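Quarterly update from the structural biology core.
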Amino acid sequence: MSLIINYNDKKFVTLAQSVFDELFRRDKDLETQIEDRTKILIYDDITYNLSHLLTAVHFNDPAILSNYARWLYALVCNHSNGLSKARIMDYLLEQYEIITQSVSELGQEAISGPDKEKALRYLELARKEVAETATDLNESASFLEGEHYELRKLYLNALMSNRTREAFELISNAYKDGIPLTVIYEEVLAKVMYEIGALWHQDVITVDKEHYATSVTQTIMSAFYDEIFARPKTNLTLISCAVGSELHELGIRMLSDIFEYNGWDTYYLGAALPHTAILDAVEEYRPHLVALSVTMPPYLAACEKIVSALKTTYPDVKIAVGGQAFTRTNNLWEQWDIDYYAPTARDLLTWAEKSFDGKLLREGPWNG
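Predicted structure, tokenized:
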């Protein structure tokens, strides 16, 4: 491969045009939403990426493309009008993905033999460079604190850059390496999702990114279910749910999984249940413990009503509350007739296992 890049060379033009056409094929709105001048700039952008790729391959130096990718991201951010950093990152990542596809399919025209494999490796490094630059955020204190910071940082980066398979592999490998599932849930998945929520509130990412991260995390959690439900069982039962019209239910679902993993029979009721449905569930399943989660403060009043109804109707059932809404109060839970306020699922599990003695394990509160 010659170092001197001819932008009019037929092989180079074919490769660049392939990338350009695929970009517009994937996004039909581009054709009508942008001017011809902008289309020319997009094509020029593609040729610059390709020229840096070819130069990097020629000199066996992936930093040539990676550094350009980082510089390009910063340039687009500084000159964009109203586009979020996440949107810009998605655009650049998609362009590198399409270049990778075109090199794989048409690369033999411009890049052949071992150079083709090298080019594909360099493109993956460039994608990671963009993702890491875009996710180099001012992290919250809660995200920085605790064990396994590096793992949750890698998981956050994978979600931010839409690398679904990498996200799965990170969590799967962490479990295989001996990190307990309860730790993975609380120190990685829960903290990352809290951080995702904070980034959305700060308008750093858009709601579709938040939904994507939630969907990936839920799917990863479901991959553990065979093991979770195969664990030895105790004679303890938990009912858990999110209160009111609450849609932020991932935290309480994690709590239910952690209890199930530790031998409890759990009934996760989800969210948006009427009060009567929760009371009916308690009557049917006869739990030892009811865990109620509230994420948004406007639903605290609904939670208080459920607590009161449960204590009136089923005084022997223990009740725990938790969720982000309580952290924004002046220890509001101290005024309620509850048995425990749980900052984390592990805190509640530890308390619950100490609270139910051998007699209760054998007989349960409904038979005593």
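Confidence is low (pLDDT under 50) at residues 358-364.
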